Amino acid sequence: MIIEHRTYTFRPGSVDGWLKKYEAEGLPIQKRHLNRFLGLYVSEIGRLHTTVLMWGYDSLADREARRTAMYADPEWQAFIAGVWALDAIQSQDVMIMNPAPFSPGA
């Protein structure tokens, strides 16, 4: 399994609005397409106004196929257009993480 680790940095004061929209609209769509939701975390100490979102995939090919299908979904397209209209996200970093040989699920 590989892990997609997405870090989003938000304008101060905009995280709560994004979280509500994501939970109500975006997450259900992503769960339908991406399947293995590992969690969403919000910073408490350190770099504030930051979230980390993680998804698990069988491989890079699995990730590519699932994300391609999601991007083609009209519901996802409407959701993401609404997210960009919020003008809340300042930066986005995406990493693909491979497990160490002794990690659970490796």
Automatic annotation (TrEMBL):
Coiled coil: none
Domain NIPSNAP: 4-104
Gene3D superfamilies per UniProt: 3.30.70.100
Domain of life: Bacteria
Alphabetical list of InterPro entries matching this protein: Dimeric_a/b-barrel (IPR011008), NIPSNAP (IPR012577), NipSnap_domain (IPR051557)
TM region(s), chain numbering: none
UniProt family annotation: Belongs to the NipSnap family.
Name of the protein described by the UniProt record: NIPSNAP domain-containing protein
Biological classification of the source: Bacteria, Pseudomonadati, Pseudomonadota, Alphaproteobacteria, Hyphomicrobiales
